[in-house]
Design a protein that fits this description.
alpha+beta, 2 helices, globular
Length: about 80
């Protein structure tokens, strides 16, 4: 199945663009997608925190994805 990965901030630079499509097996969970991303883009491991959201909602790693879900990579945020 296909999912869309959207990146913000430094994560966009790490994956070399604002988004990418990923073909994954059926019934994959967010934790597995996180592992795939960290393996494909080792620089993501250097971020202090890395949150993933699905369809505009924060989810835990055991959340199971469906076809055409949008996963957003949210890097650490700082403000002033």
């Amino acid at each position: 199945m296909k999912i869309e990965i959207i990146a913000y901030g430094i994560a966009k630079d790490i994956i070399d663009g604002p988004s990418l499509s990923m073909d994954v097996v059926e019934a994959v969970d967010v934790g597995t997608v996180r592992k795939i991303l960290l393996s494909a883009y080792p620089a993501l491991k250097g971020l202090a925190s890395l949150q993933l959201a699905v369809n505009a909602e924060y989810v835990k790693d055991d959340f199971v994805l469906k076809e055409n879900d949008e996963v957003v990579i949210i890097p650490p945020v700082s403000g002033g």
